[in-house]
């Protein structure tokens, strides 16, 4: 009886008609050809695209590494699979009689073909794993650059942890996973009729696999000590206060890893000896010992952490905390921070303003979000144009160093009318956006709109734009064809449209085979058969700039905020920041996932017209950048044009990471650092109509002890869970000083108002709140702009623009007021200059405060008495204003429209007396009072002099 077929030795024979056999072969051949064709087409289209941009060497290097690793993975997985299946079949053939085996197992050729097929499938799976996961790590491993810095425990160069250790871990992990997979297959195969007890071949097979697993486990444990320098985990259940090597790691985990590695090797030797002697049962003894040791080791780690470390953690971990502090600073480029003391004096006066006039002239009076709405309504002109973003930069304009806003006028073909969305229009005619808008950061018109420096179509203004066409940008552009027989739309000019011809050569020439290839790739039969293409026609593919650079160099991470630059020759380029990060920098705390090292060592430019891409080294000394330069020698250049370097901006995303890490790692006293006693955090501000975390912002200012204004990025700090400002961090952007970071610390003995405290005081100012509430009641939205903390010499002022926007969809946000806050004073005026002058006058006159340095108390008293009268008059007017406003609300709620309108006229007259122009009342204030006006107390003015909990701290 055949044990595998239920006792029946008779099997039905299937007769295959030979004349139909060829159909199966044809179908199989077609499937193989289709798969191979699609794969080849993808490779060719990518190569031609990369070659058109002169980056074919990058493509071939990546492809070659993937192929080599893929072949290695295929061979490894396929050979191991075939050996495993071959050994299993041989064990079956030896153990069972011929009549007990299924007929197919006895047919050697068929079984060999089946085993080869299974091995090939597993090999393809392994190939995809190895080349997909390991190609970048392999290239870094073979081309690594030294960090010229060693770890304090093993004395190894940092490059070992960043480049070598990940590759070793990958190799061990892949082989160990593969071995465990085969062990499970063998256990399943040899469980039939308990072959593992009766078959010598099966026992040898299982023992060999277990021995290989044992050796790999020994290798895994041997690498574990190096991993202790890159994590804060001391057991499966516990974390250490130290990122990197800790006391428990050195005392327990490292010795434990070496012991387990030795046990794994001894376990392997034991199992081989027992296999030779035929004592199968005792083979399990070392496995049980090994498992027990792992459990005991974890228990010892937990016990040491709980009973030896935790009761006296600081003194025990103190040496390791210092390494954690030093190496984290190095990983985030914070170890050369320039730290200065800022007195935070109340020294503002007219002379100081005059000395820092360039700083004053570059204070931002606009914010990006409302400004983007204005650009899109005023400077688009057609529905198919759109400003995707507005960015901040600086330019030399008529010899003056000036900070500006600018945005690109891009094309959005999805906004074309439905009848215009033809293949010709979307692929041949509407190919590019046009020009840009640029405005002063510090100037607005009388209507509160931006004061433009470059505007309209074609662009005209303070800068010459020679190539305004934007073929490449931030929009999700479709691929287009240029230089066809169809004229490209350039820009609207009155009743007609101007046309344009693409003059660059960075597209793909659609001639011969390439036309067929890209027609298939685009899935466009029209591209293949149309007679509107010629020998000069070019395909512009991947026109979104972030997709474009990521397609060329996918091994970099890119900033989410590209910005447009007008070069000296009048051309437009996009600037992108590329980040280089690593996972295994020793002793460093991670900022995201396992990433604990980051640099912005590469700047990328994309020509908005031609699409030409350049990678520039902004930090040539970075070991990661040097490693990539070794891998791709033709990718990155260190020769940066001056007009490109002049517009390098320190990226906001990186600055946020660094400022967050520095908020903890600025503490140099280890005990303070351990207790996190002096943690700094990002403050909050009132932006639009909600409290949000403050974002870093760019400023043009003159740093203390420096002679000229420069472009910096800055961020205030507040103590954790407090609102007073403790310091501010900045980074320089210009020339040779690019990337230099500094911190100005304020005195800790007295209160320096923080951003949220200023916001609270603005909310509680009775005059300001009444005026803002009046606008809100008049059918308009009040938008609070960014609050800017502006250091000037040894003092600091705050500036916040106030926008008014009507509730209808087509309204434009307008800067109607500017708030200036300084020390205990707050001023709101129609423009910044007036507000600043008023503030200077207030503080120069004493601002209601006594000058501590003036010993003549009689003069101070006389000054106070002389100012009583105007203060009383102003108070009376404010009280009258409040009464009228309450009357106005009451009449509205009672439906007395005529009395409400009369009261509104009285309010307007009183506003004139208070030096408030009638034009400041929203233009859309309804003449006819609406029928349903809710009676609300939210618009009631708050009590003057009321303080927030934050302000109650006062000054020490």
Task: Kindly describe this structure.
Strand 7 (450-455) and strand 8 (460-461) form a beta hairpin. The model is unreliable at 1-9, 847-867 and 915-956 (pLDDT under 50). This protein has 26 helices and 32 strands. Helices cover 45% and strands 18% of the residues. Strands 1, 21, 24, 25, 26 and 27 form a six-stranded mixed beta sheet that branches. Strands 2, 3, 4, 6, 7 and 8 form a six-stranded antiparallel beta sheet that branches. Strands 15, 16, 17, 18, 19 and 20 form a six-stranded mixed beta sheet that branches. By secondary structure, the chain is of the alpha+beta class. It starts with 17 loop residues before the first helix and ends in a 43-residue tail after the last helix. It is a multi-pass membrane protein. It holds the Pfam family UPF0182.
Q: Taking Cα atoms only, what radius of gyration do you get, to the nearest Å?
A: 37 Å
Helicity, in percent? 40-55%
Number of helices: 26
Low-pLDDT sequence parts: 1-9, 847-867, 915-956
- Output mean pLDDT: 86
Distance between the termini: 100 Å
Q: What is the total tally of β strands? A: 32
> Which structural class should the secondary elements be placed in?
alpha+beta
The best one-word shape is globular
- β-strand percent reads 15-25%
Biggest pleated sheet: 6 strands, mixed
